[in-house]
Amino acid sequence: GAVVSQHPSWVICKSGTSVKIECRSLDFQATTMFWYRQFPKQSLMLMATSNEGSKATYEQGVEKDKFLINHASLTLSTLTVTSAHPEDSSFYICSASIPAGGSYEQYFGPGTRLTVT
Amino acid sequence: AQSVTQLGSHVSVSEGALVLLRCNYSSSVPPYLFWYVQYPNQGLQLLLKYTTGATLVKGINGFEAEFKKSETSFHLTKPSAHMSDAAEYFCAVSVDGGATNKLIFGTGTLLAVQP
Predict the structure, then answer these.
(1) Chain A CA closest to residue B88
(2) What is the edge-to-edge ordering of all strands in the sheet holding A76-81?
(3) Among A43, A50, A55, A114, which would you mutate to test the B interface (most chain B Cβ atoms within 10 Å of its Cβ)?
(4) pLDDT, tens digit, 9 for 90 and up, residues B7-25
Protein backbone atom coordinates (compact mmCIF):
# COMPACT_ATOMS: atom_id res chain seq x y z
CA GLY A 1 0.00 0.00 0.00
CA ALA A 2 0.90 3.65 -0.29
CA VAL A 3 3.19 4.83 2.47
CA VAL A 4 3.84 8.41 3.46
CA SER A 5 6.59 9.24 5.91
CA GLN A 6 7.40 12.38 7.85
CA HIS A 7 10.61 13.51 9.42
CA PRO A 8 11.18 14.32 12.15
CA SER A 9 8.42 12.69 14.17
CA TRP A 10 8.89 15.25 16.91
CA VAL A 11 10.99 18.36 17.32
CA ILE A 12 11.60 20.91 20.01
CA CYS A 13 12.97 24.28 19.03
CA LYS A 14 13.54 27.65 20.60
CA SER A 15 11.39 30.64 19.86
CA GLY A 16 12.67 32.57 16.86
CA THR A 17 14.30 29.65 15.10
CA SER A 18 13.09 27.86 11.95
CA VAL A 19 12.12 24.24 11.61
CA LYS A 20 11.82 22.14 8.47
CA ILE A 21 9.48 19.15 8.27
CA GLU A 22 9.77 16.65 5.44
CA CYS A 23 6.97 14.64 3.90
CA ARG A 24 7.89 11.79 1.58
CA SER A 25 5.90 9.37 -0.51
CA LEU A 26 7.91 6.17 -0.23
CA ASP A 27 6.56 3.93 -2.94
CA PHE A 28 4.69 6.21 -5.28
CA GLN A 29 4.87 9.63 -6.87
CA ALA A 30 2.59 12.36 -5.65
CA THR A 31 1.87 15.40 -7.74
CA THR A 32 -0.25 16.81 -4.96
CA MET A 33 0.41 16.80 -1.24
CA PHE A 34 -1.43 18.53 1.57
CA TRP A 35 -0.33 20.00 4.88
CA TYR A 36 -2.61 19.97 7.90
CA ARG A 37 -2.35 21.29 11.40
CA GLN A 38 -4.01 19.64 14.36
CA PHE A 39 -4.31 21.15 17.82
CA PRO A 40 -4.74 18.87 20.84
CA LYS A 41 -8.08 17.10 20.83
CA GLN A 42 -9.19 19.00 17.75
CA SER A 43 -9.73 18.25 14.11
CA LEU A 44 -7.36 18.69 11.21
CA MET A 45 -7.23 22.07 9.57
CA LEU A 46 -5.93 22.25 6.02
CA MET A 47 -3.06 24.71 5.76
CA ALA A 48 -2.08 24.42 2.13
CA THR A 49 -2.09 22.32 -1.00
CA SER A 50 1.35 21.57 -2.35
CA ASN A 51 1.80 20.91 -6.06
CA GLU A 52 5.04 19.59 -7.50
CA GLY A 53 6.90 22.23 -9.44
CA SER A 54 4.60 25.11 -8.59
CA LYS A 55 3.73 27.39 -5.72
CA ALA A 56 1.61 26.05 -2.92
CA THR A 57 -1.97 27.17 -2.50
CA TYR A 58 -2.59 28.40 1.02
CA GLU A 59 -5.87 28.40 2.86
CA GLN A 60 -7.33 31.64 4.07
CA GLY A 61 -5.69 32.83 7.25
CA VAL A 62 -2.47 30.85 6.82
CA GLU A 63 0.62 33.04 6.61
CA LYS A 64 2.56 32.20 3.48
CA ASP A 65 5.75 33.81 4.70
CA LYS A 66 5.64 31.94 7.98
CA PHE A 67 4.82 28.50 6.66
CA LEU A 68 7.01 27.96 3.63
CA ILE A 69 6.13 24.98 1.49
CA ASN A 70 8.35 23.50 -1.18
CA HIS A 71 7.41 20.57 -3.41
CA ALA A 72 10.53 20.17 -5.48
CA SER A 73 10.08 16.54 -6.48
CA LEU A 74 7.28 14.03 -6.93
CA THR A 75 8.21 12.30 -3.69
CA LEU A 76 9.10 15.14 -1.35
CA SER A 77 7.31 18.15 0.07
CA THR A 78 8.71 20.25 2.89
CA LEU A 79 7.11 22.63 5.36
CA THR A 80 9.35 25.18 7.02
CA VAL A 81 8.03 27.04 10.02
CA THR A 82 9.99 30.27 10.07
CA SER A 83 10.66 32.29 13.20
CA ALA A 84 8.67 29.84 15.25
CA HIS A 85 6.78 30.96 18.33
CA PRO A 86 5.08 28.99 21.09
CA GLU A 87 1.69 29.42 19.41
CA ASP A 88 3.07 27.46 16.44
CA SER A 89 3.37 24.40 18.66
CA SER A 90 1.10 21.80 17.13
CA PHE A 91 0.86 18.45 15.36
CA TYR A 92 1.59 18.83 11.66
CA ILE A 93 0.37 16.14 9.30
CA CYS A 94 0.94 15.77 5.59
CA SER A 95 -0.92 13.68 3.07
CA ALA A 96 -0.40 12.64 -0.52
CA SER A 97 -3.11 12.32 -3.12
CA ILE A 98 -3.07 9.19 -5.27
CA PRO A 99 -5.57 7.67 -7.70
CA ALA A 100 -7.75 4.90 -6.30
CA GLY A 101 -10.84 3.31 -7.76
CA GLY A 102 -11.75 6.04 -10.21
CA SER A 103 -11.12 8.89 -7.81
CA TYR A 104 -8.31 10.06 -5.55
CA GLU A 105 -7.56 9.22 -1.94
CA GLN A 106 -5.32 10.94 0.54
CA TYR A 107 -2.75 8.87 2.37
CA PHE A 108 -1.50 10.47 5.55
CA GLY A 109 1.89 10.60 7.14
CA PRO A 110 2.37 9.80 10.84
CA GLY A 111 2.64 13.46 11.78
CA THR A 112 5.28 15.70 13.34
CA ARG A 113 4.84 17.15 16.78
CA LEU A 114 6.42 20.59 17.05
CA THR A 115 7.03 22.18 20.41
CA VAL A 116 8.37 25.72 20.50
CA THR A 117 9.85 26.83 23.80
CA ALA B 1 -19.44 25.50 1.20
CA GLN B 2 -19.03 22.06 2.64
CA SER B 3 -19.13 21.17 6.30
CA VAL B 4 -19.24 18.13 8.52
CA THR B 5 -20.89 17.69 11.90
CA GLN B 6 -20.04 14.79 14.14
CA LEU B 7 -22.48 14.38 16.98
CA GLY B 8 -20.84 13.23 20.17
CA SER B 9 -17.22 14.09 20.80
CA HIS B 10 -16.93 11.04 23.06
CA VAL B 11 -18.63 7.68 22.66
CA SER B 12 -18.14 4.78 25.03
CA VAL B 13 -19.25 1.22 24.32
CA SER B 14 -18.67 -2.15 25.87
CA GLU B 15 -16.57 -4.72 24.09
CA GLY B 16 -18.86 -6.70 21.78
CA ALA B 17 -21.49 -3.97 21.60
CA LEU B 18 -22.62 -2.09 18.51
CA VAL B 19 -20.58 0.93 17.52
CA LEU B 20 -22.46 3.87 16.00
CA LEU B 21 -20.63 7.10 15.20
CA ARG B 22 -22.73 9.85 13.69
CA CYS B 23 -21.81 12.14 10.82
CA ASN B 24 -23.93 14.68 9.01
CA TYR B 25 -22.67 16.73 6.12
CA SER B 26 -23.58 19.82 4.20
CA SER B 27 -22.72 20.10 0.55
CA SER B 28 -24.09 22.01 -2.41
CA VAL B 29 -22.93 19.30 -4.79
CA PRO B 30 -22.95 15.49 -4.56
CA PRO B 31 -20.36 14.77 -1.91
CA TYR B 32 -17.50 12.39 -1.59
CA LEU B 33 -17.53 11.12 1.99
CA PHE B 34 -14.81 9.51 4.07
CA TRP B 35 -14.22 8.03 7.48
CA TYR B 36 -10.71 8.03 8.93
CA VAL B 37 -9.32 6.60 12.16
CA GLN B 38 -6.48 8.12 14.13
CA TYR B 39 -4.56 6.36 16.88
CA PRO B 40 -2.65 8.48 19.42
CA ASN B 41 0.24 10.44 17.95
CA GLN B 42 -0.28 8.92 14.53
CA GLY B 43 -1.57 10.04 11.18
CA LEU B 44 -4.94 9.13 9.74
CA GLN B 45 -5.91 5.84 8.18
CA LEU B 46 -8.76 5.56 5.71
CA LEU B 47 -11.54 3.27 6.91
CA LEU B 48 -13.91 3.66 3.99
CA LYS B 49 -15.20 6.08 1.42
CA TYR B 50 -18.32 6.82 -0.56
CA THR B 51 -18.05 8.25 -4.06
CA THR B 52 -20.97 7.05 -6.15
CA GLY B 53 -23.04 3.92 -6.54
CA ALA B 54 -23.95 1.62 -3.68
CA THR B 55 -24.93 3.61 -0.63
CA LEU B 56 -23.78 1.00 1.87
CA VAL B 57 -20.02 1.04 1.97
CA LYS B 58 -17.90 -1.59 3.66
CA GLY B 59 -14.46 -0.74 4.95
CA ILE B 60 -11.60 -2.23 6.85
CA ASN B 61 -11.73 -3.74 10.33
CA GLY B 62 -15.43 -4.62 10.02
CA PHE B 63 -16.67 -1.05 9.73
CA GLU B 64 -19.34 0.09 7.33
CA ALA B 65 -21.24 3.28 6.62
CA GLU B 66 -24.41 4.15 4.78
CA PHE B 67 -24.87 7.25 2.68
CA LYS B 68 -28.36 8.65 3.17
CA LYS B 69 -28.93 11.62 0.93
CA SER B 70 -32.35 12.44 2.36
CA GLU B 71 -30.85 12.68 5.84
CA THR B 72 -27.50 14.12 4.69
CA SER B 73 -25.87 11.49 6.87
CA PHE B 74 -22.98 9.06 6.65
CA HIS B 75 -22.98 7.24 9.98
CA LEU B 76 -20.27 4.71 10.78
CA THR B 77 -21.16 1.37 12.34
CA LYS B 78 -19.57 -1.84 13.49
CA PRO B 79 -21.64 -4.72 14.84
CA SER B 80 -19.25 -5.74 17.60
CA ALA B 81 -16.66 -3.47 19.18
CA HIS B 82 -13.17 -4.67 19.91
CA MET B 83 -10.70 -3.16 22.33
CA SER B 84 -8.44 -2.29 19.42
CA ASP B 85 -11.16 -0.03 17.99
CA ALA B 86 -10.49 2.56 20.68
CA ALA B 87 -9.29 5.61 18.75
CA GLU B 88 -10.38 8.95 17.31
CA TYR B 89 -12.64 8.82 14.28
CA PHE B 90 -13.02 11.60 11.75
CA CYS B 91 -15.67 12.03 9.10
CA ALA B 92 -14.68 14.11 6.08
CA VAL B 93 -16.28 15.49 2.93
CA SER B 94 -14.89 16.71 -0.36
CA VAL B 95 -16.55 18.19 -3.38
CA ASP B 96 -14.88 15.98 -5.94
CA GLY B 97 -12.61 13.02 -6.29
CA GLY B 98 -9.82 14.79 -8.07
CA ALA B 99 -6.17 14.92 -7.13
CA THR B 100 -6.49 18.30 -5.49
CA ASN B 101 -9.70 17.50 -3.65
CA LYS B 102 -9.71 19.25 -0.31
CA LEU B 103 -10.97 17.32 2.66
CA ILE B 104 -13.14 19.09 5.19
CA PHE B 105 -13.02 17.25 8.48
CA GLY B 106 -15.48 17.01 11.30
CA THR B 107 -14.37 17.64 14.85
CA GLY B 108 -13.85 13.95 15.55
CA THR B 109 -15.34 11.38 17.89
CA LEU B 110 -13.22 9.66 20.49
CA LEU B 111 -14.33 6.06 20.86
CA ALA B 112 -13.65 4.28 24.13
CA VAL B 113 -14.21 0.55 24.42
CA GLN B 114 -14.81 -0.82 27.89
CA PRO B 115 -13.90 -4.41 28.75
Answers:
(1) A41
(2) A4-7, A19-25, A76-81, A67-73
(3) A43
(4) 999 999 999 999 999 999 9
